[in-house]
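**Sequence with structure:**
===
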Amino acid sequence: MLRTELNEAMKTAMRAKDTAGLGTIRLILAALKDRDIAARSKGNYDGIPEDEILQMFNSMIKQRRESITLYEQGGRCELAQKEQEEIVVIQRFMPKQMDEAEVLAAVKGAIASADAKGLKDMGRVMAVLKEKYAGQMDFTHASATLKQNLV
């Protein structure tokens, strides 16, 4: 479903002559194609599943946020703005992000389902969160929330 949505968005951006959106969508499709090709070597000829596509979106957003920080430190605000615009385009294809209260509830539920007792169980809890909430939460923030609740 995400693949067809991306292709339709590319066509719409072409018709609307939205060069910024079109460039970002093409970057997404190129990254997706690279991951599909890599998946073929593992015997997956249908391409990567949607949860991996959502993880790819998260990593693309994380890369852009890191770039924004570096551009702002270097005084290159125009490049930081371009990266921010790309983040907005990528987020259009992601499910609604969880707010603070929802992340906390999800973390507490994952702790209970993984029967976690301390920080040594953090990996199991994060695996549960990534399985259930791929693309719906910032896992860096979820990790910090998890550490606070496991001690």
Remarks:
- Residues 50-73 form the longest helix (24 residues).
- The chain has a mean pLDDT of 89.
- The chain has two domains: 2-91, 100-150.
- The radius of gyration is 18 Å.
